[in-house]
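User: Modeling request: complex.
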Amino acid sequence: MLPSSTVENYLKAIYQGAATLTPPHRLLPMGQLASALGVVPGTATTMVKALAESGLVEYEPYSGVALTPAGHKLAALVLRRHRLIELFLVQVMGMKWDEVHDDAEQLEHVVSERLIERMDEMLGHPTHDPHGDPIPGRDGTIAHRHLDSLLTCPIDTPLKVTRIADQDPAFLRFIETNELKPGQPVDVVGRDAAADSVIVRGKDQRRITIGARAASKLLVEPR
Ligand SMILES: [Zn+2]
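Assistant: Request completed. Predicted assembly structure:
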């Protein structure tokens, strides 16, 4: 028997890694999975073979791994717990959005179904967590939307921040200081390929220059 938190972390990592693949690619390379989990490739392969035997993933040697429908549902339910816990810690317990991720990483494996459903009710059945990530439903369905980032969105178009695709506390504080949290207005003034940076106009016409890597993690939609 594998410890359930390990299984859940693998399924979650495969789910999140698969989201970065561009069609027709569907299998997550093992090297990418191993580095996301901070383990050596041999460890990841052993684990993935066990998950394949349990029917949670499909594993193709030398190609990679994909979730089966059963694995996909389990992964979505871990994300549901994680995201509801984060929102609960922020909205009900008054914690800051840059300090809840690590606690949610622990709690997502131990909270009961009853507790999670009660949190969901207290929060008014929210659709997104504090970082703008969609909260999967009880049945494991996730609302999928394609969002542009500040790197790919049109220039000089009124946008708003929708989702922050990085949980690093220092990065989240940078976002907060510059008033670029989900819901806040933004538009791209220009991109500087030579400097690898993006110049944006935020709240109150504030001009902010951000690096391309950071810009790729700020997802936006039309305002
Ligand atoms: Zn988190």
